Amino acid sequence: MLLSGFCLTLWAWCLLSLGLERHQRTVLATPWSPAQRRAARSGGWALLALALAIFVGWRGWELGPVLWASALMLAAIAWVLLMTLLPRGSLAVCAAVSLLGLASGWLGA
Amino acid sequence: MKDSLIKSMAWLHTWAGLVVGWLLFVIFVGGTIACFDAELDDWTRPSLHGQPPTTQTQFDAAFALSRERAPDAHAWWAHVSGPRERGIESYTLLDDGTQSKVVLDPVSGEPIPGTAGGEFFFVLHYNLHAGTLGMYLVGLAGMLMMVALVAGVLIHKRIFKDFFTFRPRAGGQRAWLDGHNVTGVLGLPFHLMIAYTGVAIFTASYMFGGINAAYGGDIEHFFGEAGDYYHRAETGQPLRQLHSVDALVADAQRRMGVRVEWAAIEHPADSSAVIAFGTDHSRRVAWDMQQVYYDAATGAFLHQTAPPGAGYYTYSWLGGLHMAQFGGSALRWLYFLLGVAGCVMIASGMQVWVAKRAKKVAQAGALSGYGLVLGLNVGVVAGMPLASAALLLANRLLPATLPERAAAEITVFCAVWALATVWGAWRTRQGLGWRDLFGLTALALFALPWVNLATTTHSHLLATIPRGERSLAAVDLSALAFAAAFAWLARRSAVRARAGASQPVPQEA
Q1: Which domain range does residue B474 map to?
Q2: Structural domains in chain B (count)
Q3: Residues of chain A contacting residue B334, judged by C-beta atoms under 8 Å apart
């Protein structure tokens, strides 16, 4: 569950940064319209909220928000490193980590 | 107005950060490692590895040994063997406030070789092994960290625009400033929380006005009342007989509704002696401070603490949020990695200070204030990880029969750090301080699993992975991961040093 929640926050930061013109251009070859960037930002915020729901569902209202906030900060740092060191491949790495998260979720890890 | 505010905040951030920067770095490295203090304690006691786990408490055996060591102590205290840490920690506390500790084998009840263990880093984290003075220094560092954090946010003009921006290839001050900003801003909630709750734990010592007015400065009396702890005045008569402590565990667990984690006997030689039981903090964010008490002669139930009041519960919640005992290994890993981000924030902040003044540093030379900062920076930031790795190597390499073995490990830690600081400061004149110390740290950490393999039978990776002992294996695997990271840092420093040598102004690492 930790990895699944972490992946959601990773995608959330990914979308939030794609909502900014400078980062969108380093990650993707094709430029986005302002409307597309706005949509990415909304999607990012929605994923952050969904991740909170997942952590609260997993460990309850007392521990869930602490785990969510911690995962949130680490995912942000991880995404910035990924986007800096591997701009064109960052989305692929995100997808690979998410598959791993889904698989570990299925296996009940 | 705005300009002068930003200027004064920039001044505040620079100097609040510089004054306690190294101290904060030491506190952060210690605290980050202390996320796994119990796991590291367990790792440093190889004689207990490979044994079947036991749920049988050994309080009577532990207290029989305590009686031999300190018959008229103020109190005896003993832990149970648990899943995180299988050794039984047994303490004797004397009336003059000193304490001594032995660790017992959970099966045989016999003492095992001493070690500094994970507890060394935990104590380093909250008082630098310097008692009350150290606790105040750490508190001061924590308060200045909060000042530096708030001032840092105020002077960061592009905090939202540069939220995701990191330009490591930009070189010089820019790369360090980006690294400092990214770890600082993205980890800001954690840094603020950890500094605030860390200071809050010792609030009764740091803000003593209330305690002085209401309790005459007696902090223990205050905590005794807040926690509803039970005490009996000494009678001066000797205790006739000591009731079995192990026999009371089941009743204590029934009354508390949770597992007994420790037992203590207060003034065990006196007829007023009281047996106390407490639990751990693994279920809620707030510490679980409840205790039950029994008469030490008859085993009769005496008292159970009342649930904490709102104020004390709030305090326990803040302390619990800092100590991270409640979320299992998942939360420990999250706190550990956020702690690493904090270490990077502090170290890169110090590098910004140096890089910004690179010209002045070069002009002033090695025997100046700037030269001192440059050299000490290498000694503290690169020396402490090397000393920590040396401590773990010493744990495996020092003979098990060595008297005062824990102290010998700490001597190794201090000696390596002192040598590293002198070496690093000296080699910084050639721009090679970082490369040398990071390279040595990488070697020491890389050697750790191999030394483990050569010196132990049940504790190395080839034994711990098949047995499924994740915590033990994680120490060796983390050492390898950090070895790779330090090797990368050493290589990067070497490249920078070569690039810097061809330029008139020496580059920072």
Answers
A1: 357-509
A2: 3
A3: 67, 70-71, 74
